[in-house]
Protein: N-acetyl-gamma-glutamyl-phosphate reductase
Organism: Chitinophaga rupis
Amino acid sequence: MASTKIKTGIVGGAGYTGGEMIRILLNHPDVEITFVHSRSNAGNPLYAVHGDLLGETELTFAADLSNDIDVLFLCLGHGESKKFLEANTIAPSVKVIDLSQDFRLGESLPGREFVYGLPEMQRDKIKAAQNIANPGCFATAIQLGLLPLAQAGLLQEVHTTGITGSTGAGQSLQSTTHFTWRANNVSTYKVLTHQHLKEIRRSLQLLQPAFTGNINFVPVRGDYPRGIWVTSYLESDLTLEAALQLYKTYYAPHPFTHVSDKQIDLKQVVNTNKCLIQLEKIGTKLVIHSIEDNLLKGASGQAVQNMNLICGLEETAGLKLKSIVF
Amino acid sequence: MASTKIKTGIVGGAGYTGGEMIRILLNHPDVEITFVHSRSNAGNPLYAVHGDLLGETELTFAADLSNDIDVLFLCLGHGESKKFLEANTIAPSVKVIDLSQDFRLGESLPGREFVYGLPEMQRDKIKAAQNIANPGCFATAIQLGLLPLAQAGLLQEVHTTGITGSTGAGQSLQSTTHFTWRANNVSTYKVLTHQHLKEIRRSLQLLQPAFTGNINFVPVRGDYPRGIWVTSYLESDLTLEAALQLYKTYYAPHPFTHVSDKQIDLKQVVNTNKCLIQLEKIGTKLVIHSIEDNLLKGASGQAVQNMNLICGLEETAGLKLKSIVF
Amino acid sequence: MASTKIKTGIVGGAGYTGGEMIRILLNHPDVEITFVHSRSNAGNPLYAVHGDLLGETELTFAADLSNDIDVLFLCLGHGESKKFLEANTIAPSVKVIDLSQDFRLGESLPGREFVYGLPEMQRDKIKAAQNIANPGCFATAIQLGLLPLAQAGLLQEVHTTGITGSTGAGQSLQSTTHFTWRANNVSTYKVLTHQHLKEIRRSLQLLQPAFTGNINFVPVRGDYPRGIWVTSYLESDLTLEAALQLYKTYYAPHPFTHVSDKQIDLKQVVNTNKCLIQLEKIGTKLVIHSIEDNLLKGASGQAVQNMNLICGLEETAGLKLKSIVF
Amino acid sequence: MASTKIKTGIVGGAGYTGGEMIRILLNHPDVEITFVHSRSNAGNPLYAVHGDLLGETELTFAADLSNDIDVLFLCLGHGESKKFLEANTIAPSVKVIDLSQDFRLGESLPGREFVYGLPEMQRDKIKAAQNIANPGCFATAIQLGLLPLAQAGLLQEVHTTGITGSTGAGQSLQSTTHFTWRANNVSTYKVLTHQHLKEIRRSLQLLQPAFTGNINFVPVRGDYPRGIWVTSYLESDLTLEAALQLYKTYYAPHPFTHVSDKQIDLKQVVNTNKCLIQLEKIGTKLVIHSIEDNLLKGASGQAVQNMNLICGLEETAGLKLKSIVF
């Protein structure tokens, strides 16, 4: 009897987002992993690279791709996904979910249109999509903090601080991810110029075409491995009650994004696919805090959420993850 | 149609191990949570105490106990479990799994005998048990590093270093869990006198009755929240190959404990129910490293593993947890 | 021969800023510590409370105050300094340096006027002062980032993010300084309402009386013990070169505040009395990063700097501290 | 008028120990830095590499060596010091203090004999020395915990756990110093085989020639940048009182090593040149805890201490460093 599970392939399975993809899919009730591709690791067990998978699976990295799959996840560096799709023949029937930024701004390839995969913005479009451009980590957290305002046409110039864990910088060894340097340290990078601003602006203008204000974004390197904290504020006529109403109504149909009536802290969402949002009204300013795990809701978790949607599965399948909490 | 799920109650649900119990059971496919008892929090939603549960459940803390359950988890402080069972009438049919140290050394109550719940030592006894004394966190990690030797009658005086995360100290505010003090710090406590030595010795002598050597244990406070690292060494005639063979054979039937051929590091098991073991042979000494998450395999995860066994469920049900890795 | 050293007393010597005061003054070449007052610790050696002082001094905490001193440091909680000065008779000749916020907004007591002790703003006034209100930690870092603009009359509405280490919260045990909670966590507090905004605004308006714009300040709890990172930005017509020129000229006479031409990171100043500043110009916005150790330049170090000034010592005496760097 | 300060040169000034050497010597009252040699950084200001030195000095790295110095510090990798001395002509009058392990076991070069630079073991020999082999970081902490026993002829087989901060691994980027990997992690390395065991054994046998027991040493990678914690235990007939008496008498003449009557914790010594020792007697075992900053008492601080001794300066000159404490 043939398996009725969704067959998936992972390209770039030796990196951080590839590893998270494997971890989620191994326990996903409706999915099987057909192959995890990695040329340099071909033949080695997955746990030789991802040590935590010892005892979880005997799967090995594959040197070759297979087209006998339903969904292909591309966990490659920026610029590499486009090259990969141009250099390899992927069967037209295979759905592609790309975690790079190569197709987030409307780029396409012959025969492959990509839909921006932010379910809280356009779940129906995603359900009907063949290919998904999975949003960036900061882009997800910032947008989830602003979508209800944009849909209501209430966005104005936004001031945003975002703090990210070191996993956002990937697994390559860099001076800014050296333990001795980063521990107990703080620094910023790409202040007011972060590349995610493009996809953020594109989404927000879809919802509020007249929005032309700045999104002033200060990205901060945090002293911890996982998670993104975002605080945005802007001028707003909304009362706190009206804002809460707006946000709660907007997110009511969405299983992973929740509005908290209490102060939030980052570890509420670390190692989960959730985004939590907290609102404050101070004088004439509305303050929005939004938090996520950059590798899950900000990357591989959201990719699986998108797979669930395009494959007609329950949106939360395989994504009820135990948080680390502490 | 009546639910066929196992009905569970949790006493002490506002603490660390109680919270982990809730997190696991909420996603356990064969279990439902009938109540989470907490007098001081009665009526409040669980997420008012455990903020990460926002969006996971609308359950509230219960002021009263119910006997319409199959399994009762006691997540109470040491000394409190015995008092609780003496003060409350628990139906004889209810299985009790106690996470305190009150019944680990053979203590019993009228009508309630307790079996020491270390599945890797005595799974069959556990399957037949009515009540379980769940092992201590350090006790679990140290024993899992020594059980195969004890069973083979090869234990001699052992030298052990154990490092624990701050969650081992619970949620009360103490000078040794103050962030400013503990961050970047190291200290030891209860050197050579840790209370877990009693249950460790008891188990080892069950397997190797003639063992009278010391277990010299240096407990260290680690600079991180979760996880226990243990390194033990002793004189041994075994070659590395023979030792690996002994350990791999011993743990082959056990789904959560695995022997690694490569160097291990703590984060391979954090936020999972696993224990990983690594062996080295240096001169005449056999070195055994064993690691676990102190709140899971060292507490609530093992409690659920024991519940699975005494209820006839798959041993791993509800316990395939995604590691934090990073 | 009588000692010609400055005689100092410390009230509140058991707390964090009191401890730092002791550490600095013990090695200050021109100062001696006459007493460290603490009722609850009277008679105990200083190292019984401040364990790192073992081997540094045999001084004990004093139950009584002495008026045979030149300078008195008040290292008390907010509200306590005023009470202390009202309840105790301090000789009029004794100079008082208060680290609380009790006198930062122009408050005074009969016979005691207080000068706001930010040397980079008003060194000459400080030199002539009898009593000093030592600035707040965030207030120091934010002001040092803005003073040159205010003096040039170029301030407009400011957007500021500030991240502080846990020592900023003092030594009392709180849920937000519990290691298990704070490690790897991020949260905000007093968003847009932090109490230091008052003293900041007061200083800036002294320099630029017409300034009425907001200072929008988002305070963040950082995951490390020591140090404050501040990023501020505002609209500005200045080129980067002109801004650098303005800042370098302003700070040229000040030995502890320096403008960096390279990206800065917090650990450059931890455990020193320095403030480093870095500028960026992005589009029409001027971005100012400023960093300090919250307990030194943000508290006790600056207090000693003020003492040096009011006592006619070299401004840097006793304050050439080795940074932790790593 | 010619300077009467000691003239020093530093080779390898771009590394961790070289940087610490600069930091100490810049504030040393009796010393001047004549050159800091680094071929790759020649001409650049020191603060271009050591960012925390901004505002401290305008010194630049030198491409060339000078022989117009009194003391030369070699802050080079293991094996590099010997090569350096063979390849370069150093005036015979120049005293050499080498921080590598090249000369710790009695190795010499023509015209250059090296004395092992552990002042608490052989201060008089050091005072008379021309060249110093500066001890290793773990070697210092372990020996300081055992010297009084060895001198009394009371050493037996020792069991030692040592935990080191990440700075011990130097500044090169390695998988074990990657922030994402090391944060919240624990691992061991070179278990029972650490290279420092040779110099430890050599010293101990000098004091107690008949000592042939093992020193069983488990080195642990700690989750913090700075500091070494060592716990050693052994069989001993000494009472706690007798042991305390032995240790306090032994260390009474030594200004940097102190015996604590209270529990110690690592941060008491971080960023200082001190070593603190705490004793416990449990049953028949004597437990010795010893702590230090691996870069100071374990490297550059001890090198300066040795310089002070061989140059006839006060032993503590330039080494009264403010601890980080928090």
In short: DSSP finds nine helices and 13 strands in chain A. The first helix of chain A runs from residue 16 to 26. Residues 159 and 216 of chain A are 5 Å apart (CA to CA).
